[in-house]
Design brief:
heterodimer, A: five-stranded mixed sheet, 11 helices, B: 10% strand
Chain lengths: 325, 320
């Protein structure tokens, strides 16, 4: 099958959806002429024009807030928040307005909004351009949180997010943009709320998101050489969260490691670990292990940033610990 | 501008309806029948009514925490409003929103809002949608003097100005952001001056003169429908009651309140209508009797309606 990069897969999803539905528009900082700071909206302006591909001022609150008003009035905005770190200046429009509007209005509002944003460390971009804030959004009823890890998932999940009638925070790890993978040419959807078993195994379950899926898969190869078979489960969407698939896997492997790039404390993994403890405690043969970043801002210097990001070795040693090796 | 008798009487009736509604809400709140926070619109009726008299059913508004007046002016149903204030399942929001979140999307009312300035970007986006779809619809965005110091004010006006969106930004300057005087909260005497920063028209009007508000809004709405972009209208007004019911109001002098009571927008219009021969004492009594009957009906509807059952708690979080 044809291969695309993660960024190209997203670009194709946007292009195909915009061709399908004239009510979809894209807006954000540098999404037009520049094609997006990471190239995800490249060449959309040429095809769809300024009305549908809107370069905005640096005005995050109005970018998200105008999406709320436009969606309430019948459009399907896909807006870009250049870095998830910038959500602080726009958060009210997302969590107080977009997320709650349907509920506050007694169900009589439909808010089909996608906020695409980038997360993650690895570019030496320091504390305000590198964070992983998935758990913030997971904590808000009314939002959906999508966290793709492969080009295939990126395209299918973005198409589903655009077609969803709820506000979706679509988080793209910036270190994934260049990875290649097989992506069908035709449009396709991946249901929001359905985890994917990225590798089957029998000795331990590793639940991993975004960049960590790749590290877990690589760790799985190495562990296999030591005779340890791990199952890698990618939730793909953190809200709704497919606990069923995770628990099924734990029932099979009896051991769980959860890994993400967010700080470990109160990260998405805490929710996953707690739910497994509540619902599948009797199936566990070892304490659950969580791996996340330390409780610090993201540092700048390469030696510090490398130490901050959870590594493949961290995953390998956690797995060995839970399997008693 | 000559305003037809019929329209003047309609605006008079709407203003009186808002006042009667708010008076009743104050009474019911004091009696413990309305839970939560309520922020009453009494005294500012000319603003909502003068602006909304220029709107069509397919136009939108965004409102504020002090939103009952905007809803009534845009055509909101008194029964559904009152039931919502009571927290009843028959209310506009099935009892999930309350006073600060009443909305009727079908009537173009994109909601009251509990966040000061929260509606400004939303109004801008609704205007984007109207323009995008090629309609000549407009959005009236209501907010107060306090909101004019929020970042969303700057962001919304800037975005609407660069994209020439059909928004009429209506600042209800009632001189106080809760207790903090506008004189101390900004260095400009007129909020409308801030329009210069976006190169859009900024107009100051007597917000207690419904005709003045109507005329200013008429021009702004025409401009917006013609694709010429947004206008900022600042309506100088005053709230008769506290910020919320229960406000001790230690920040306003008795003299100041009395001075503004003399400028009551309803009494002023009434006097003019009588001078013009458009209204008699008898007409007035009939209008009042009709309004009171509608308010009583709304209260009865609210009182007789059921509360939502606890299992409705989980409904309406997501669209399936």
């Amino acid at each position: 099958m044809r291969k695309l990069t993660f960024a190209q897969a997203l670009n194709e999803a946007l292009r195909q959806e915009m061709r399908r539905d004239p009510n979809i528009y894209v807006a954000g900082e540098d999404v037009g002429v520049y094609g997006g700071i990471f190239g995800v909206t490249a060449n959309l302006l040429e095809e769809f024009g300024e009305e549908r591909v809107r370069d905005t001022p640096i005005t995050e609150s109005a970018i998200i807030g105008s999406a709320v008003g436009a969606a309430a009035a019948g459009l399907r905005p896909v807006v870009e928040l250049m870095f998830v770190d910038f959500i602080g200046v726009a958060l009210d429009q997302l969590y107080n307005q977009a997320a709650k509007m349907k509920y506050m209005f007694g169900g009589k509002a439909k808010l089909p909004i996608v906020v695409r944003t980038t997360c993650g460390a690895g570019m030496r971009a320091a504390a305000q351009h590198s964070q992983s804030l998935e758990a913030w959004f997971m904590h808000v009823p009314g939002l959906k949180v999508v966290t793709p890890s492969t080009p295939y998932d990126a395209k299918g999940l973005l198409i589903s997010s655009i077609r969803d009638d709820n506000p979706v925070v679509f988080i793209e790890h910036k270190m994934l943009y260049g990875i290649e993978g097989e992506v069908p040419e035709e449009p396709y959807t991946i249901p929001l709320g359905k985890a994917d078993v990225k590798r089957e195994g029998s000795d331990a379950t590793v639940v991993a998101t975004m960049m960590m899926v790749h590290k877990a898969l690589s760790a799985a190869e190495k562990l296999a050489q030591d005779g340890i078979s791990i199952e890698v489960v990618d939730p793909r969407t953190l809200s709704p969260l497919d606990m069923e698939t995770i628990i099924e896997s734990v029932k099979k492997t009896h051991r769980l490691v959860v890994v993400h790039e967010e700080v470990k404390f109160a990260g998405s993994g805490a929710e996953i670990a707690a739910s497994v403890a509540e619902e599948a405690f009797d199936y566990l043969d070892a304490p659950i292990k969580r791996i996340g970043a330390p409780f610090t801002p993201v540092p700048f210097s390469p030696t510090l940033e490398d130490a901050f990001i959870p590594s493949e070795e961290d995953i390998i040693s956690a797995v060995k610990e839970v399997v008693g090796g | 501008m000559a305003i037809e008798k019929e329209l003047l009487l309609d605006m008079y009736t709407r203003m009186k309806t808002i006042r009667a509604f708010e008076t009743k809400v104050a009474e019911l709140f004091a009696a413990g029948k309305i839970p939560g926070f309520v922020h009453l619109y009494a005294g500012e009726e000319a603003v909502a009514v003068g602006v909304c008299a220029n709107l069509r059913p397919d136009d939108y508004i965004t409102s504020t925490h002090r939103g009952h007046g905007h809803l009534i002016a845009k055509g909101g149903d008194l029964k559904l409003m009152m039931a919502e204030l009571f927290g009843k399942r028959t209310g506009y929001c099935k009892g999930k929103g309350g006073s600060m979140h009443i909305a009727d999307v079908d009537l173009g009312i994109l909601g009251a809002n509990g966040i000061v300035g929260g509606g400004i970007p939303i109004a801008t986006g609704a205007a984007l949608a109207l323009k995008y779809k090629g309609t000549d619809g407009v959005v009236a965005c209501f907010f107060g003097d306090g909101a004019a110091n929020q970042g969303t004010f700057h962001e919304g006006l800037n975005m609407a100005s660069i994209w020439k969106l059909p928004v009429v930004f209506v600042c209800e300057n009632n001189m106080y952001a809760i207790s903090f005087s506008q004189k101390k909260s900004m260095n400009v005497p007129d909020i409308a001056e801030r329009a210069k920063a976006y190169d859009i028209p900024g107009v100051v009007v007597d917000g207690n003169d419904v005709i003045a508000v109507y005329e200013a809004a008429n021009e702004a709405v025409k401009r917006a429908r013609a694709g010429e972009g947004p206008t900022l209208i600042e309506c100088k007004t005053y709230r008769h009651r506290g910020h919320f019911e229960g406000d001790p109001m230690i920040y306003r002098s008795k003299e100041e309140v009395e001075e503004w009571m003399k400028k009551d927008p309803i009494l002023r219009l009434e006097k003019r209508l009588m001078e013009m021969g458009y209204l008699t004492e008898e007409d007035k009594k009939k209008i009042e009797a009709d309004i009171n009957a509608r308010i009583e009906e709304a209260v009865r509807f609210a009182e007789e309606s059921p509360f939502p059952s606890p299992d409705e708690l989980l409904e309406d979080v997501y669209t399936e």
